[in-house]
Specification:
This protein is an alpha/beta fold. A hairpin with a 2-residue loop joins strand 7 and strand 8.
């Protein structure tokens, strides 16, 4: 295809979103995803509990995930594909890698490069579904890790529980990377003798954070508020009110 001025176009519609949600344990990631339009779950861990949602059998090997993505290329009424969860899918990827490569082939960071190629095939499958109108929600657990900033002293922050190269690839792929946590306020109490104690107090309110801060990694391409109530409808409403002129990559 020739690239010239006549080939320039303007994006005027929002494509089905690709969303990654990671969080602390037990906050309700799966319940959040169950509220999306007509979801179908690809399970890599047994985390549905009592939720009544459509799902494929629990994936016990990587090929099960590829087979589920391929099946969704056929005729169906599902509108959202949910992978629950990414870190357990990462275990299946490494299970397959370790079965095919010896220790020498995986040394000196080569394993991380191979794993990233595995992830690209998964993401290609998700993009194929996006082309037919399906949104995607990718769920992950969080971990606290040291972040070495080039601008300030190292600090710890929440981030997805994934190997660094694979995590970066997924973050670039997704339109929203949201961190879900309980809202916490800090209270300082005077305990006497010029001593003070600082405590974090949770209100029980669940929030989805959509813009990166020192405490957590996040991003969005929809000019979303920095935080939203952690439920699907709140996120969907915020995304659909963004106009093409407001939407931007971050």
């Amino acid at each position: 295809m020739a690239i010239n001025l006549q080939a320039i176009s303007r994006n005027t519609t929002l494509q089905p979103p690709r969303i990654m949600i990671y969080s602390v344990h037990g906050i309700g990631k799966t319940t959040f995803a169950a509220g999306s339009p007509s979801p179908i779950f690809i399970l890599t861990e047994d985390g549905l509990g009592k939720l009544e949602v459509d799902h494929f059998p629990l994936a016990t090997k990587l090929s099960d995930v590829h087979d589920a993505l391929a099946a969704l290329k056929g005729e169906h009424d599902f509108q959202t594909v949910v992978i629950d969860s990414l870190d357990w899918l990462d275990n299946l990827i490494w299970q397959d890698i370790n079965a095919k490569y010896d220790e020498k082939a995986l040394g000196f960071g080569k394993g991380a490069v191979i794993a990233a190629d595995y992830w690209r095939k998964i993401l290609d499958g998700i993009n194929d579904l996006r082309a037919r109108g399906m949104a995607s929600i990718l769920l992950a657990h969080s971990e606290i890790k040291r972040f070495d900033s080039p601008e300030v002293d190292p600090f710890e922050r929440y981030q997805p529980k994934l190997q660094g190269r694979s995590s970066a690839l997924l973050q670039e792929f997704c339109d929203v990377v949201g961190f879900a946590n309980y809202k916490t306020t800090v209270k300082t109490a005077d305990v006497g003798f010029n001593n003070k104690v600082t405590r974090g107090i949770s209100t029980g309110e669940r929030l989805l954070y959509t813009s990166e801060k020192p405490a957590y990694l996040a991003k969005n391409r929809y000019s979303l508020p920095d935080s939203l109530p952690f439920d699907w409808q709140s996120l969907a409403d915020a995304m659909t009110t963004a106009t093409p002129n407001q939407t931007k990559g971050k």
